[in-house]
Amino acid sequence: MELMQELKKIVNVYEALDATTILAVTDTKGCILYANQNFCDISKYSKDELLGKTHRIINSGYHDASFFKNMWEVISQGTTWRGEICNQAKDGTVYWVDTTIVPSKNELGEVEQYIAIRSDITEKKMLAFKLEEQLVHDSITGLPNSIYLESIVTKKIAANEPFYLLKINIDDFKSLNESIGMEHANQILKKISERLKAISQHHHVLLTRAYGDEFILLCPMSKEQIKSFIHTLRKLCDTPIHYLDSEHYMTFCIGGVRYPEDTTSYQDLVYYISTAIDYAKKKGKNTYAFFKHTMLEDIDENLALKNKLFRAIQTKAFTMHYQPQWNAHHEIIGFESLARWYDETHGFISPAKFIPLAERTGLIIPLSYLLFEQMLQDFLRLQNVMSKQIKIAFNLSIRQFFDEQLVSRLLQLCEKYNIQSSCIKIEITEGISAFSVENVIPIIQKLYDSGMEVEIDDYGTGFSNFKYLKDLPIHGMKIDQTFIATCMTSVKRKAIVNSMIHLAHELGFSIIAEGIEDEQQLQYLTAQGCDIFQGYLLGRPQPVNYYEK
Hints:
Layout: H1 2-20, E1 22-27, E2 32-35, H2 37-43, H3 47-50, H4 65-75, E3 81-88, E4 94-105, E5 111-120, H5 122-136, H6 146-158, E6 163-170, H7 173-180, H8 182-202, E7 206-211, E8 214-219, H9 223-234, E9 241-243, E10 246-248, E11 252-259, H10 266-283, E12 288-290, H11 294-315, E13 318-327, E14 332-343, E15 347-349, H12 351-361, H13 364-386, E16 391-396, H14 398-401, H15 406-416, E17 424-428, H16 437-449, E18 453-459, E19 476-479, H17 481-486, H18 491-506, E20 510-513, H19 519-527, E21 532-533, E22 542-543, H20 544-548
Parallel strand pairs: 11-12, 14-16, 16-17, 17-18, 18-19, 19-20, 20-21
Antiparallel strand pairs: 1-2, 1-5, 3-4, 4-5, 6-8, 6-11, 7-8, 9-10, 13-14, 13-21, 13-22, 14-15
Helix pairs in contact: 7-8, 11-12, 13-15
C-alpha cells in the first residue's frame, strides 16, 4: 500500500511537470527518447520529427561550441546543469528556455539518461535585451553611448590593441538649441549623426554619442590614417544641413588621444580627450588638437590662477585704467574703462587671460560688479579733473549680460555714488551675437530704458551680420580695431569701414573708431564722418591718478 502511494506521488509529480514545463529525455548520446507536448508546441516540431534526433535540430547558432562543451562535461559526470539556452523553432523563430538537465543513473551509479526540464523565458529575455539596448544606445541618434564605448575600449586595452579616440564637439550648438528649441535642435543633431555614421562605417570606425552635442569615435588607425580621417571629418559640414526649409551651417572642434602612447587607462583617455578638445576650442572654432601632457600643466596653472583670482576678488586687488575718447573737435568727451590685475607672483596678468578664466569659472559675475563699482569711484575723480560732463564706458561680459539682476544692480551702484545713469555707456561684446535675438533685445531695451547708453563693441565681427540690427535699441557702434588697422592698406577694408560708418549714421547711431595708431588713420576717419576716436595715437589706457597729475 505504501509503495502504491509513493508511486502515485511520483506519477503526480510527473504529470505536474509534464503539464507545466517543457520536458525531454535523451540517452547518453543526446538522442531524444521522449518529448512532451509543450516541447512540440514551442519548437513547432511533431513528436515523430523530434524522437531519435539530437537537440541540434533546434540549435539556433546563438551559443558557441564551448557553451555546449561545458554543459556536456558537467552532465556526463552525473552533475545537474542549469542555464539559459536560445533555441530555434521549425519556422525559424527563436525562443529562450531556462533549462535544468538532470542526469539519471542506474543501480551502478552510471549515467544512462538525461532529463531536461525547461520553462519558456522568451518574453523575459526580449525585455532584458530591450532594456540592455536602451542602456547602451542613445535614444535620439540611435548610436551606441558612452557605456557601450567603455566596454569596447576596455576590451581593446586588455588586448593591447593600439587606437585613437576622437571627440567631436559641435560649435555653438547651445545657441541653436536656444534659437529653435530642443526638439528641433535634436533633429539637426540626428542629421549630423547620420553624416558621421556614413563616414565612420566607410572607415570601419565605431561612432558613439557621448552626451549633449558631443560624439566620440574609436579609430583603429595609424598616425597617417588618422590625419586623413580628420581631414575627411572636417569636410563633413561643407554643405549645410536642411531642416524645416532652412539651411544650417555647422562646424565642430575635434580633440584626439592615442592608446597606448598617451595613457593605458580608460578614465585617463576620457579625461585627456576632453582636455584636448578644450584646448582646441580655445584656439577657435572649427579646429582640432591632439592631447599633449603639457596641456595638463596649463590646467594646473589655470587652477592656481583661479584660486588667485578668487582671492583677488575678495581683497579687491584690481585697478581700472582709462583710455580717452575724443570727438571730431579734438576734445576728450569720455573714457573707456579697462581692468588691470597685478599679482605679486605673476606680475601684471592680462585681461585676455583672467577675463576668460573668470567666465569659465563663474567668477565673472562678482568680478564684473566689483570692477563697475571701482569705475564709478574713479569716475567722480575723472569728472573733477575734466571740469565738465563726460561719459564712461564699461564692457559687459556675456555672463553678466544675462544676469537677471543686471540693470537693477547697476542702477543701485550708480545711486550709491550719486552718478547719473546717463553718464554710463555699456559696451556689449560681439559674443552676444551668438545668442537668439529674442533673448538679447529685451535685455538691451532694459539698459536703454535705464538711461544708460548702449554700444555694440567689435562692430564688424558679430552683429554686423545681424539682420535685426535696425531693431536694436542702441546708441552707437564701435568699429573693431582690426578693420582700423588695415583700412589704409586694403581697398576692401577701407570700403567696409566706409559702409559701416554710413550704415550706422543711416540707422541713427553714433560710430566710434578704436585702435587708431597713426595720424593718417585719424584724418581719414574724420573725413569719413566718424564721431568718436580712440587709440594709442590719442592716449593709452592710464590709471586715474595719471589724469589727476
